[in-house]
Amino acid sequence: MDELDALWAFLVAAVIAFAVTPPAARLARRLGVVHYPRERDLHERPVPGLGGLAILAAAVVAALLFLPGGQQTRGIVAGAIAIALVGAVDDVKEGGLNPFVKFAGQFAAAAIPVWSDVRVENVTLPFVEPLDLGSWGYPLTLLGIVAVMNVVNFTDGADGLAAGVCTIAAGTFAIIALSLDRVDAGILAALTAGAAVGFLWHNFHPASIFMGDAGAMVLGLLLACVAIQGVLKTAAVVALFFPLLILAVPALDATFVVAKRIKYGRPVYSADRWHFHHRFANIGFSQRRTVLYLYAWTILLGGFAVALRFVPYSDHHGNFDAAWLAAGIVMGALVVAASFYLVYVLEILKFKRLDTIRLRRAGATEDEIDEDVARRLETGEFEQVRRETEEFDAIRE
Nearest CA to 150 among 88, 66, 221, 93? Predict the structure, then answer.
């Protein structure tokens, strides 16, 4: 039974990741791969890295046990090993790899599954004929895999965030892929979820180990391959929207951060405190609360993707059921509204309340308050607001 194979793959990967993570932490300490707190970091004590090696071991063993030994499986496994090596070198090397060398390593690793036939040949879009990509499928798939690897890597900035988001995303992909009879992709998604959740046990706040670039990029490559094999290669009317919804939270985070860096003339690979998890933390959320809110957002979007798969709004031949289509639109509107709530109300309005209290105490007018809030939202200067408020309270007391 396909679902049973996927369940076993999930469990085996989870057990291996859980068991191998502590030895990976000990190896990291011996090699001196320890992450000491920096100004932009959220953790407050040294934490060993190289947890990605445990994720890799879990994924590779489970893949060899439960996936067919064909060209595509070999390509995915080889690509995962290659990107783990690139990430591990980056983690071990003081100061990390040169960004361009790292980028080249990502493309080289992604090219392995692409040349093993893990690529998108056409894309099914609603209301139009399938779009045949032809030879463009190779470079577009390559760019997509590299993009997902970096999107996941960008998310890895709070205890348990990347591992939890990848668990949810992979689990969602598994449900959809299996329902589309993409058995191999469903099993790959399940073992990816297992590897992530087994590691998450040790990585949730307070984390005893970090996955590092090795783990984040392995998970990114596996998720990209799942999306390609399990969703994008199907004739489902909304196939293109599944990965966009399931990976929306890390994708939006990466898009926002890169746009900010470009706007202010900074290299896109530079580090800063503009990620969602930083911005939540900067307005007073604990790491655990920050991560749980982002989990909830990911579950919400993943749930909508599953609903799009199972709600009978279409016969998958271009004929739509008006009532179910309307229900789908309503669900989509609710998801958008909830996403707006998380980004705007929880982040911006809470920050604005904090800044307003500080400025009113200083005797500022409403116009001055609005101007200051707009400036700080533009530049992301949340931490300074909190420090100024704390200093003001200390003097007042």
Answer: 221
Partners of 268 in beta bridges = none
pLDDT in tens, 187-235: 999 999 999 999 999 999 889 999 999 999 999 999 999 999 998 887 7
Per the structure block, which two tokens stand in for 240? 């293109």
DSSP 3-state of 363: coil
Q: Within a 13 Å sphere around the CA of 340, how many CA atoms are in the beta-carbon half?
A: 6
- Report field, pTM of the whole predicted structure over 0.85: no
Q: Collect all residues with Cβ–Cβ distance below 8 Å to 388 and sequence separation of at least 6.
A: 358
What stretch of H or E contains 161? helix 161-179
The single-letter DSSP state of residue 265 is: T
Question: Position of tokens 């470079």?
Answer: 139
pLDDT at residue 325 above 90? no
Tokens of 360: 């009113």
DSSP type of residue 346: I
Give CA–CA dist 149/380, Å, rounded.
25
Nearest to 110 by CA among 88, 80, 86: 80
User: And the tokens for 131?
Assistant: 């779009």
Q: Is 93 left (phi over 0), alpha (psi -120 to 50) or beta?
A: beta
Q: Position 161: which residue type? A: L
Looking at residue 139, its amino acid is P
Cβ–Cβ under 8 Å, residues 193 and 148: no
Return the pLDDT at 311. Answer: 79
Distances (CA, A) of 347 to 276, 339, 382: 9, 11, 10
Neighbouring-strand partners of residue 314: 320
Alpha-carbon separation of residue 380 from 119, 272, 276 (angstroms): 38, 10, 11
CB of 225 closer than 8 Å to CB of 76: yes
Whether residue 190 contacts residue 10, with contact meaning beta carbons closer than 8 Å, is answered with yes
**Amino acid identity for residue 48 in this structure:** P
Using CA atoms, how far apart are residues 173 and 190, in angstroms rounded to an integer?
A: 8
DSSP 3-state helix, strand, coil percentages of the chain (rounded to 5)? Answer: 75, 5, 25
Q: 22 in helix, strand or coil?
A: helix
Q: Are 141 and 118 in contact (CB under 8 A)?
A: yes
C-alpha distance from residue 225 to each of 35, 163, 302, 308 (Å) = 30, 17, 18, 21
SS3 173: helix
CA 46 to chain centre: 24
d(CA 94, CA 33): 9
